[in-house]
Amino acid sequence: MMIILKNKSTHTKGQKMAEEIFLCSICNINSGTCLEDCKFCSQSVRYKADIDRYKQKHIEDILQEAKAARKAGALGFCLVTADKGLNDKTLKFVCDTAKVLTKEVPQLRLIACNGTASLEQLLILKEAGIKAYNHNLETSENFYPQICTTHPWSERYSTCQNVNEAGLVLITGGIFGLGETQDDRISMLEALNSLNPSSVPINFYHHNEALELKPNSLTVDEALNLVKLTRETIPHAQRIMVAGGRELMFGDRQNEIFKYGANSIVVGNYLTTSGRVISKDLDMIESLNLGIATSVK
Predict the structure, then answer these.
(1) What is the mean pLDDT of residues 245-274?
(2) How far apart are CA 188 and CA 139, in angstroms?
């Protein structure tokens, strides 16, 4: 379990702001090879987005990224693959990578994000050193068929249940700005809460011209209030993480997310888009008189 962060009052009514921010880095260890039709995802081969595509990143390269992430203050390091779910080959690759990272960078909490996974597969990952598993619901069950038709929302929910049964730390969240209604957002958050996640990554749709979806139309104020709504709806989550789309969505108001309930961010680059220089995030956190989480239980 993650450390419980101490809180202090802020000017945002009804909210508390954590004194320490948990940093997480993600590593795209297999990119742009997915056959699914998720309309928000540039990693699907269906949309022919202009992104880097490769089967397996060299483990030595992954290790160097992990060391750099830890040096920058990250405690979480997520191994992401671009497929619907785990097969034997991918499972072995993730396990082999996890064993190397556990030995070389033991301070990092290793997270796997590899799509649909059975209980048996998750137990194998756990044995290899994976501590947490990330699988997002993405949106509400009702809206989901409008953004994906090649696998059901229920499959995502079942994988999250498997994560809990395996005794791994569950990380699950979703995406705002896909064209969903406010009722859809509330429905998704309530579903997430029912899974009792430790961490809830919320993403803001980052449009790619190759994708069918319209650009994200949320305003900054609307997005901040969705961060607040997430914290209020999932009060027992140890971390509300603002992940993909942060820089584009919030611009020069990124520092406000912590007043609205966030206590974790992704630093560095994302899966197919660039993040901002990590030093700027560290400067932002320092300017708010906040600390960086330095340990995890």
Answers:
(1) 86
(2) 5
Q: How far, CA to CA in Å, does 10 sit from each of 19, 112, 209?
A: 11, 34, 39
Q: Please name the residue that has the structure tokens 């406010």.
A: 182
Give CA–CA dist 41/271, Å, rounded: 10
Mean pLDDT over 95-119 rounds to 97
Task: For the chain, give every domain's residue range.
Answer: 20-292
Contacts of 119 (CB under 8 A, 6+ apart): 162, 165, 166
Residue written as tokens 């820089």?
Answer: 247
d(CA 275, CA 265): 11
pLDDT tens-digit readout, 169-214: 999 999 999 999 999 999 999 999 999 999 999 999 886 676 777 8
Q: Is 18 exposed, middle or buried (0-12, 13-18, 19+ CB in 10 A)?
A: buried
* pTM (global) more than 0.85: yes
| pLDDT tier, 5 (very low <50, low <70, confident <90, very high otherwise) | very low
* Angle, CA of 2, 29 and 206, to the nearest 5°: 75
**Domain 20-292: which topology?**
TIM Barrel (3.20.20)
253: how many CB neighbours lie within 10 A of its CB?
12
Cβ-Cβ contacts under 8 Å for 168 (sequence gap 6 or more): 122, 125, 126, 130, 131, 132, 133
